[in-house]
Amino acid sequence: MNLNKNYDNLEQSYLFSTVAKKVNEFTSKNPDKKIIRLGIGDVTLPLCKKVIEAMHKAVDEMGMQSTFRGYGPEQGYDFLREAVQKYYTTHNVNLDLDEIFISDGAKSDLGNILDLFGNDNTVLVPDPVYPVYVDTNIMAGRKVIFADANGDNCFLPLPDKNVKADLIYICSPNNPTGAAYNREQLNSWIEYAKENNAIILFDTAYECFIDDSSIPHSIYEIEGAKDCAIEFCSLSKMAGFTGTRCGYTIVPKALGKLNKMWLRRQTTKFNGVPYIVQRGAEAVFTEEGQKEIKENLNYYKENAKIISETLKRCNIWHVGGKYSPYIWLKCPNNMKSWEFFDYLLEHAQVVGTPGAGFGKNGEGYFRLTSFGSKENTLEAMERIEKLFK
Ligand code: MLT
Which helix (H) or strand (E) segment is 340 a member of? Predict the structure, then answer.
């Protein structure tokens, strides 16, 4: 029996587990202090009414012989795939039903998709970035190289012709910086991918925050993307499904074998998302569902404004919060990321995410999320203002 030695090359624990551990240690020593968590991007508003109604109805169906369902199609029920298909047409993207795969979320699929690619591929990942892209490739022993995202390129690195990569991760709007690529910039990545016979893994989990027509919601809005990109999206941030679990992955048939390979992989290793959850997800894409989730998204956007205005008053440099729920700030007084994390926890009992956890270029930066309640966001900002104004 041999263990997978690649695991020895990982950080000791996943970023958000390390954050949670540190917070738990603090609370056990300071049980009377009220902690405000603006760290992991977890939603706080409940599922919208339309979703709950649909799920209740589906629960009733499961309790009756005539409407009970057992195993569903691994790639998702047609009713949900059709709803996703229709949603894409609102972004002028036409997809065939068998290009849409329903999943339990983008995180799982971003890791699972790697089953389709050889371990000898070179993987290009922006730095800083969502740690899952790096960790899942380290687990498989792939070579990971980085594209520097920094203040100079507004956290939006563009392709370098001298770099050869086979798999390219793009997260737009970006986690953690909130930066989002425009059409021209995405087009340059598509051209690069085609020249290098590479595949882009496009994570668009935060597209629902975009309200600017110059920013694409889907990479397929750009001509030629279906020949070189797989897209991942999730209802987690869009509709508060972080605990409910549902997402979708698009594998265009123009990618040749990859579409069939993904179907083969999913039918072998996955039994699909529960029927009740898929009915709830379907409701998100109805007219009323969209209206209700927009109200929730606006609530979070308002929180982002509150955070940004406070940071401005404190003269703390920051970006983001516009196309994403994340505010990316420079740690005050030249503190390092984990130093600032400890300082904020100790002096304000506010939890954020250290930028260094997203890559070397994240050192000296810090991420706050707007997914908290308005009351908690206001209180956290009051505490921060007291420390830095
Ligand atoms: C984050 O905080 O970066 C996200 O919530 C993590 C995730 O979506 O898995």
Answer: helix 337-348
**Same domain assignment for residues 272 and 294:** no
pLDDT at site 29? 96
CA of residue 257 to ligand 1 center, whole Å:
30
Which atom, in ligand 1's list, is nearest to the CA of 353? 2
pLDDT surpasses 90 at 286 = yes
Which atom of ligand 1 approaches the CA of 107 most closely? Answer: 9
In a domain, 3, yes or no: no
Judge if 254 and 281 occupy the same domain.
yes
Helix (H, G, I), strand (E, B) or coil at 249: strand
Pocket of ligand 1 (CB under 6 A): 40-42, 107, 130, 175
Based on the fold, state whether residues 244 and 343 are members of the same structural domain.
no
pLDDT value of position 161:
94
Q: From the CA of 22, how far away is ligand 1's center (Å)? A: 17
Distance 376 CA to ligand 1 centre (A): 19
Residue 372 pLDDT level (bands cut at 50, 70, 90): very high
From the CA of 70, how far away is ligand 1's center (Å)?
Answer: 31
Does pLDDT of 80 surpass 90?
yes
13 pLDDT higher than 90: no
Domain count, the chain: 2
Q: pLDDT tier at 152 (50, 70, 90 boundaries)?
A: very high
Question: What percentage of the chain has pLDDT greater than the value 70?
Answer: 100
**1 is a domain residue:** no
pLDDT of residue 201: 98
Rounded to whole angstroms, the Cα distance separating 146 from 143 reads 10
Atom of ligand 1 nearest to the CA of 132: 9
| 329: phi then psi, degrees, rounded to nearest 5 | -125, 155
Q: What are the Cα distances from residue 376, in Å, to 35, 176, 302, 306, 379? A: 9, 21, 13, 11, 5
Same domain, 82 and 227: yes
Residue 180 forms part of a structural domain? yes
